[in-house]
Hints:
Layout: H1 5-10, H2 14-20, H3 33-43, E1 48-52, E2 55-58, H4 59-75, E3 83-87, H5 92-103, E4 107-110, H6 117-126, E5 131-135, H7 139-143, E6 153-157, H8 165-174, E7 188-190, H9 191-196, E8 214-220, E9 228-233, H10 234-247, E10 256-259, H11 266-278, E11 282-285, H12 294-301, E12 305-308, H13 310-317, E13 331-334, H14 341-353, E14 360-364, E15 374-375, E16 385-389, E17 394-398, E18 412-417, E19 424-425, H15 429-435, E20 436-438, E21 444-454, E22 460-465, E23 470-472, E24 475-477, H16 479-487, E25 492-502, E26 506-515, H17 523-536, E27 545-548, H18 562-571
Parallel strand pairs: 1-11, 3-4, 3-5, 4-8, 5-6, 6-7, 10-11, 12-13, 13-14, 26-27
Antiparallel strand pairs: 1-2, 8-9, 9-19, 14-15, 15-16, 16-22, 17-18, 18-21, 20-21, 21-22, 23-24, 25-26
Helix pairs in contact: 3-4, 3-5, 4-5, 10-11, 13-14
Amino acid sequence: MKNSKKEYKERPWLEFYDDEGIPSSIEYPDCSMVDMVMQSAEKWPDNIAYTYYGHKVTYKNFVRKIEKAARALKNYGVKEGDRVTICMPNTPEGITMVYAVNMVGAICNMVHPLSSEKELEYYIKVTDSKYVLVFDAVFDKIYRLRDSAQLERIIVVRPSDGLGFLKQKMYRLLHVKKVKLPSNDSRVVLWEDFIANSYFYQGNYHEERGGNDPAVILYSGGTTGAPKGVLLSNSNFNTLGVQCTTVIKQAVPGASILSILPLFHGFGLGVCIHTPLCKGMNCILIPAFSHKQFADIIKRNEPNFLCGVPTLYEALINTKLRPDDLKSVTAVICGGDALNQTLRDKVNSYLKSHGSNAKIRVGYGLTEATGATCLSPENSFKDGIIGAPFPDMYFKIVKNDTFKELPVGEEGEICISGPLIMMGYLDNDAETAQAIRIHDDGKVWLHTGDIGYLGEDGFIYFAQRLKRMIISSGYNIYPTHLESVINSHEAVLTSTVIGIDHHYKGQVPKAFIVLKPGYKAGKKIEREIRELLERNVPIYALPAAYEFRDKLPTTLVGKVAFKKLEEEEKAKK
């Protein structure tokens, strides 16, 4: 059905959708996330749901694993509405637990395994989570929180658990170093024992949940940089799955995607795991990415989809592959940070010279909008383009701190409306009210804190971030959060953190510190500040450099002129 003139005016990108045969609106299922996976299993039972180091599991067997884990959760007392913390990389146990938690009507609390102990304590306590699934490498951090967080059960996964039987035996023979677990604490259970205990529960384990029920908590700094739980519904994720597989024509049953982006990341869970599982696709699970292993990963798995941040593609173009090693690749998506034209051209040239006809496309999204909302055309690229919003999504550009919509070509804050918008920040009405607002048109709009504009061609363009944020290898790092930790040291008067260029990660943090009178800069204080940060922020957010100064440059109104520090750093190159 043809769109009205009013719709074309509100969403000028619909002309592109008309050309591509993409509908402007879609009907979405009113069900849980796990119901979508079960529907895939009914349609494509023998398709591969995931591959883990060569071990393949079909959809019908994946659903059986989810059901066993759901029964085990019920056996250990998990109830509808409970929060279960999942502190895992991309492994079969991690994704199985996501859907098992969803099946019993509980809520997944997704946290980064490299988070500091202090952060983990906050994530667990703020959600009142009594159950934790954790990778054995970071078990000690969780175990130290068992009493303060009043944990009832810690389920521990070993790296070999998701492998086939023979590969498990080989792994355990070759990897003799094991994490020592307490033998006399009933709160700690290994994954294999957790699953075995599922047989003791024979009652109902599949709670009926609708699209509007909460499903997942992810974490974001929002506009202030302080960590906040982003509450997302079943509908948020299911909508994303339907939209992505409608817009991306190569997303067909049986296709495979390299699932490198982590499941505790909105883009990772939403685009790289749930979306393919909604369409009968194969998720090739990569728990830890190493650019040294990239060539082997591609040769061994022959993926159809590559999906990652710019640093992944920097690694790709520096990978030694044979001329036809990328012939399987049909779609390439980049998100998490801006993609410049130089890198885009290099990636496209590399794809073509190694057997693929795909061209890299740029996606845009944020955790508060389920990780992805917009995608550029495959055959059109200009610097800053983020393309056409997904069906049923509305974008507009407003003057900062107002609801006033700006004309074509004029930069302002990007606002988004539609079914991907979060339910809100967890137990934080004040922050939710700042981020989500009802405009004069009656729609609910998410204020992103990003600056962009609507182009003459009807596409959306990204210009810069309104909020202070450093993006390092696709991870968001908030300077104000680092500064608050640094400033808590007794010797520190003030500090400012900026992002400095890095050849591979894009940017890394650098801290500028002014000490109180009577304290002298040196290795001892720097070590103390570094150790303080290590206890309070994740490893990926630690500053790469520290510089002590007598004073910091300020603006006319007395605020630290962090942009001047950024200019000074660029001038050093």
